Amino acid sequence: MPLQIKSRVNDTEKHSLDITALIFNNNKLYSASDDGKIKVWDKNLKLLDEVIAHPCSVFSITIGDNRIYSCSNDGFVKSWPLNNLQCEEIVLQEPNEMYKVNFNDGKLYVGDDAGLVRIFCKSTMVGVLEIMHPIADLLALGNLIYTARDLYVLVSEIHPETKRMATVKAIEGRSPVCVIGEKLCFTNRGGKDILLHSNSKASEFQQIAVAKV
């Protein structure tokens, strides 16, 4: 069955530049854009709220602990309560561009253009993972962290007992990356084929299928 357009954003309310991120949470759609704004929409795409989050592009947003976190090429990571979108805290301010944020299991993960993934717990930095390439995509699930750029998808594991992190698998591919159940999905280096892998250390993240597009 083909997809059909059910709703469309009003031209006077839409972002003025490209949209960089979308999150659907609690029947609301949150959008971020190169225009520096975060906007909130209902499920019928009626504008509920908006805020100028950064003076330049908002590269990524994530939701956790009733807050939305944003990052930008201005080097800032900020937190905003979901109920009013008033800046609550500047979590991080660095000269590097902050590419990706991801919230998982009470921790905030921040990836930058220098290849560092900083890990925060209640606004306190508790760890740093050195990936050594810009973080084009970032996903944290349990003790595993998935990062990607345009050549490899790296799977790294955190060892809380020793406070160490290590890369356990490097797979040819590129962003975007997603995990659905026990499957790991991303595109090939050309960005046209969808690769499906097992999301299991025991199988060494073995490839299962390829969808040619």
UniProtKB/TrEMBL annotation:
Residue stretches of each WD repeat = 12-42
Which SMART domains does the record match to this protein?
WD40 (SM00320)
The record, for InterPro entries, names: SCF_subunit_WD-repeat, WD40/YVTN_repeat-like_dom_sf, WD40_repeat_dom_sf, WD40_rpt
Q: Where are the transmembrane segments?
A: none
Q: Identify the keywords attached in UniProt to this record, alphabetized.
A: WD repeat
Q: Which PANTHER family match?
A: F-BOX AND WD REPEAT DOMAIN CONTAINING PROTEIN 10B-RELATED, UBIQUITIN LIGASE SPECIFICITY FACTOR/HREP PROTEIN
Name-wise, this protein is Uncharacterized protein
Its source organism is Photinus pyralis (Common eastern firefly)
Instruction: Tell me the organism's taxonomic lineage.
Output: Eukaryota, Metazoa, Ecdysozoa, Arthropoda, Hexapoda
